[in-house]
UniProtKB/TrEMBL annotation, chain A:
Residues 52-315 form the Fe/B12 periplasmic-binding domain. The gene is sirA. This is Staphyloferrin B ABC transporter substrate-binding protein SirA. The keyword Transport applies. It holds the Pfam family Peripla_BP_2.
Automatic annotation (TrEMBL), chain B:
It is found in: Cell membrane. It comes from Marinibactrum halimedae. This is Iron-enterobactin transporter membrane protein. GO terms for molecular function: transmembrane transporter activity. InterPro entries: ABC_BtuC-like, ABC_transptr_permease_BtuC.
Amino acid sequence: MKFSLYLSRVIGFIFHTVLLAVSLGFVSPLWAENRLVQTQYGQIDVPEGIKRVVTLHEGALDAAVALGIEPLGAIATRGGKGVATYLADSVPEITIVGTAREINIEAILALRPDLILASPTMQKRQYNLLSKLAPTIVPAVKLLSKDAWKNNSRVYAQALGKSVELEKILINLDQRITSTKNQLGQEGLTATLVRWTPQGPLLMSPDINSAQILAQVGFQLKGKEAIKAGRPHSDPLSQENLNLINAQWLFLSSVNQDGNKALQTAKLSPAFTRLEAVKNNRVIVVDGQLWTSSSGPLSAKAILDDLQQQVLSTQKPN
Amino acid sequence: MRLLLSLCLLLVMLFASMLIGSGNVPFVDALAALGNQGSETARFVVWELRFSRTLMALVVGVCLAVAGALMQTLTKNPLAEPGLMGVSAGSAFAIGLAILFGAGAADLSVWPAQIGALVGCLLVIWISQTQNLANDPVRLVLTGATLSALLLSSTAIILMLDDRVADEIRFWIMGSVAGRNVNTLYHVMPSLVIAGLIVAVFIRPLASIGLGETVAVGLGHNPNKIRMVIIIAVALLVGAATAVAGPLIFVGLVVPFTARAIAGTDIRRYLWQCLLLGPCLLVFADIICRVIVPPSELPVGVLTTLIGAPVLLFLVHTKRIPRL
């Protein structure tokens, strides 16, 4: 009796080992090397068959959706209650598990994730906690570095086992950037990216991803000197220093949905109406969630759509 | 003579306020722009930007200083002050409500601010008439501070309800004269005129209340009527100031305190000093705020608090707070 049990275990063990070897042998060209992900907190082994993904970074949600995965949970976009508007329709059933500043560990636990895609800025202490729930991917990418959003997306794609798909998407985006650049046709158009707040305008860093895209399609971004090193944007500028945001094109972002209201408010300020872009009707009102908070391939695509629709249409009469 | 000195000080402040700013308009250019010479940019900065905020600081300074003096005489308490007693907070809370229900901070009407201030005033008076409280200046201030905190945290709740509101209210809560809509000044003018008339007519009866209610009655005044009218004046003044610049604390404390030190405790005398020193303080604080963190600015409320807090501590520390 005991022996037969032992035998069945041995056979079972051999059977499983063979099965494992076979599966490794066949599947490894597709999976195995992709699933060891290099992150800020070491090499993470991501098991196969990921089904329950939680994203704790807007760029991670974007990348996941771009790759055809619907995460169960995500953080809210800056200044909003849900995910960014441009993504909302793709993830109708998503659970909000906090904000970029404060995530709700219990809400994440309740979703029983098998993979967590976190922000590159996640602290070690929080990582330690989350990695007990599921493998947690914290990309070792410096935010505001060149192509940060692409490199972040690559890490998330690797964890999701979809590196090949992502590279295809990135190549398409690069082609789109080149064609937009050709359509604009002019090098060295100056531009600033500004968030208008009641306290005054914040000059956004030329290193955030929307600004990088603007640079790639041929805009020359101004005003870097007003921004303290390592910060994504300046402090609200005083009215007397509004010349710092003076440029041929002004991209005015609003965290509220009603971007045109932000423009109207800004126009109440006499210093604003003196700006070159305002006089020449070259103020482009953009969605702050998309332009100053989100990142990722879908975000890049939506930003290019904005440029196509707004800048190219404005430019034609000239 | 002393009034003349204060007037000179105010003129110097106003002049400096036109010449000093956070931008890169040199002093000499600004001076030229004052005489309508110099570059177009310099003229714009001086006449459009600095002139309007100077005007606002001037008006707000007068309002808060006079309101402070009135409240102090009325409650016979040198610590009674619109900012500390919750009148400004009431006003700010009302503005928060107005913004929540759809008003924009840029084109806000003055009425909600003044109604809020009136409610705040009535609460203060009601509390100050509660038994024993009126006899203890510090306890009255504690009560006022509690009321203030309550109203401010209620405003914070509105802040959490709506992000658009949050952005605009945060701007208000700070208290600033930069980038505010100068048109608000026109809207507050009628109420300032009314408040001015009230003060002109009722300053004698008010002074008699300062001597004690029996004296006031003996002189043929009706203390309750005087109180009501003065409260309305305070609400008009504080509401106007808050609508223009947001809640600013300590201005109504520091200025009458200084004015009394210069001109004695009779409100009929020191109110004149308040009229001059209030704008002095606010314009001075505003100038400092412009130059301290270029190319950004501090909200002026930060600086008035920095100046006012030590004065309050000093007042509280002196063993016997003189009753007014």
